[in-house]
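Sample entry (178 residues):
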Amino acid sequence: MSLRRRILLKVIVLGDSGVGKTSLMTQYIHKKFNQQYKATIGADFVTKELQIDDRLVTLQIWDTAGQERFQSLGVSFYRGADCCVLVYDVNVMRSFDTLDTWHEEFLKQVSEKKALDWCVSKGNIPYYETSAKEDYNIDAAFLCIAKTALANEQGQDIYFQGIPDTVPENEQRRGCAC
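Predicted structure, serialized as tokens:
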């Protein structure tokens, strides 16, 4: 019996509001089409499993809001994405013209290689992707920070000389020190 590898692929669906991103996903997953338009707020996702060669692939397909007021939320949904699907309405030329912007925004947010290249260009600065929420890579990043700081230390000791423990009475102030 052969072992099957299960793979999760995160796919982001991008495009202007009203181009049919949700309809495209609904048709693919549920084989249904709804004539009624309902704007996506923030983002939503669906999953679908596929058999590709000897691998079981789970597509996690994220439907993002195309409205400009929600675009700043997209950044967090882009993280960890394996690819994006750019969608436009063939009847609305402007929705095609904005595909470059969607593509550039996606690459700007997802590109770990870009960040790594920048760190290399700045003298091999250590690079860590972290998540406070998931407690991912936090300890490793701070250990690296501490080791780097120690390596850069020039034996400088800090001495506190002549600092009084209390403030003399004639310098005490009353009221708010704001």
